[in-house]
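DATA SHEET
Item: assembly model
Revision: 1
Owner: S.N.
Input lines:
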Amino acid sequence: MTAFGWLALVPLILRVLFPWLSSRWIRVQETTMTASHTRLRLDREDDAPPIGKYSGFTVRDMADIVRRVLEDIGIRDRLSSLVLVIGHGSISLNNPHESAHDCGACGGGRGGPNARALAQMANDPRVRQLLAAEGLPIAATTWFVGAQRNTCDNTVTFFDEDLIPADFQPLFKTAEEAIDTARRREAHERCRRFDAFPDWYPPLAALAHVQGRAADLAQPRPEYGHATNAFCVIGRRTRTRGLFLDRRAFLVSYDPTRDHDGAILARILAAVVPVVAGISLEYYFSYVDPTGYGCGTKLPHNVTSLLGVMDGAQSDLRTGLPWQMVEIHEPTRLSIVVEGDRDILARVVQANPSIERLVRNRWIWLACLDTASGWLWELRSTGFILHEPEHPLTVVAGDSAAWYSGKRGFLAPVEIIPVRG
Amino acid sequence: MTLPLTTLVLVGVGVPAALFALLGGASLVNRQLPERWTGPLTAVSMSISCAALLMALVLHRAIGTGTELLSYGAWSGSREGGVAIEFLVDKLSLAFAALSAAIAGIVAAFSNRYLHREPGYNRYFVLLTMFVTGMLLVAVAGNVAVLFIGWEFVGLSSALLVAFFHERPAAVSNALRVFTVYRISDAAMLSAAVLLRHLAGTDSLSLLFGRTGAASAIGLSGTNATIICILLIVAVAGKSALLPFSSWLPRAMEGPTPSSAVYYGSLSIHAGCFLLLRAAPLLEQAPGALARGDSRRDDRTICGHHDARPERREVVARLRLSHPGRDHRRRDRDRVVHDRVHSPGRTRVLPAAAVPERAKCPPRSARDAGRPR
């Protein structure tokens, strides 16, 4: 049998020289071999567990979760027919720091299961009945679909597709096509920061390129993740629609016109600010001191006892982000822009000590975008100061690619105006 | 028919050597080649080298001439006592050379992406091409001088790559340890070469190692053969991390992962085994040395199986410790088959070692590799 040992060269050559091909091959194998559907069981199982917490949710819990999400992002009374709930995760073949690209709020978990659970809760007739009785009707013409986007190879996986009623199928197909276009374009925009992606590649090759990176054993930078993050806009999406932000912004939906007492803003800030500030500072410190706060270059890293990484065969466990993740980052303080009323924002910040400390000690900048006037007010220790923009916003006709094509470094935000023709 | 063979072997060995001269020379005059040239250049030259050596292997099989000495001219006028560039080609050397070129090519392709944008990218590729040149010279060496140059290239590049991250004290001190052991091994090798030349009056490997019974024919007594063999075994033990010297191998894992894979996972670690295969006729003249070598290898084999720490590359290193031990015990021409068969499998360690694939658990593979084949 040993005479056939050289056959081991075939998968080796395939994986090392043609990672994209081998990723295709693995995907073919997976789709043909794993066909069993799974279902989430969300209902509370026991009345009184012997120890620990309950498993699952009561209908009351589920209704509260759905209500809160719909209210927070401001869509409770303007639901479309098909609502996509998309979590994110980063999946690559060879990356001990993979979870650093996953959810920053929960220490590196993937959002897919939560998105799937939320969609299932919102589709549950018992939940809808309860919500309707409390004044938040979800029409029978609305269906929720959970999904997860793999931020590394730009795959979007939909969950429970087989449960989508026939009426919604045409709409779902349209949405799938739109997402397919979006992920191709996003891959192309992301590729401009990869040195290894030559300028002359056609846009269509970009998706294959990012897929190859995810499957490449030799790739220390499968994606750049949140590197270059600089600001966060909490407000209505109409405020940022059409802007090219160079993948540097966290965009959080919030509708100040439906939040007169600041209760929703308080909830959003409590959830969002520690997360985005944490991500931003993690990149900041890993960049300014790669060997102290970061974990240096990835190349000598060894995974130790599936516990962490260390350098070579003898070192401390290394924490922080590796240089390959932060090398294109610009260490800057995160600017958070909140759309709404200045007084409400000031009150919400004062009421939350952890956010107040972050702002007072200048770990982050906070500013208020006035809903009515559109003026920007910076929050300083002395109060709000009106911010005068130094540069006018450039307007570019066409699409994002018209602005970023052929450019490698940082790009200023511009307004993209589509050309109709 | 020897002309195409001569050319093919020269191309196979010469192209990586030329690349090494180019990359190293450019670095010496501080005109380092940019990454976008180094990568494709290395890929092209490794492919050419591998193809040429494979063709040479096929051609050699087709002609079926057995061992052949190819001479590319002498450096000094007199053949007697002069130093000539001579390659000794047979089934064993061509197969080993082709395998080395293939594995080094794959590792070069891996490294090109792995070390992308790394400050030491150019240095790494200079050292890798130095290693490939050295490995090919060891494989096809026709006299002791060529063998020794190749042997030194392999050793020097190995120690420098262990110290690749020279800003870290651990890497540098480990590299020093590796370097020290290599010098001991090199000293033994050089002594063996000088003794051989002194006693046999020639440094041609074809006369010394090439034919069975040649050693006695050129007047080596049993005692002299035994002394030379012990020196050779010390040289090999140092290079392949056999028992008294084995402590350097886990320490050598400080370098970049692909270099660890190609040196201590597949090629460099077997250079010693290869040398013993080469010297098989001589070793048969020295029964005392054989017995000693065998017992040592048993110890080594046992030792390598113990003590697998939960750190991947180190586990692999300790597996490697056990493997050359078994390889050395076989010491027959079938070894080349064995090597051809297992080296690809072990270079797959490259992903496994580099790379934390979460699902795999080291103890299982450790058990598998420890199973007698």
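QC remark: The two ends of chain A are 66 Å apart (CA to CA).
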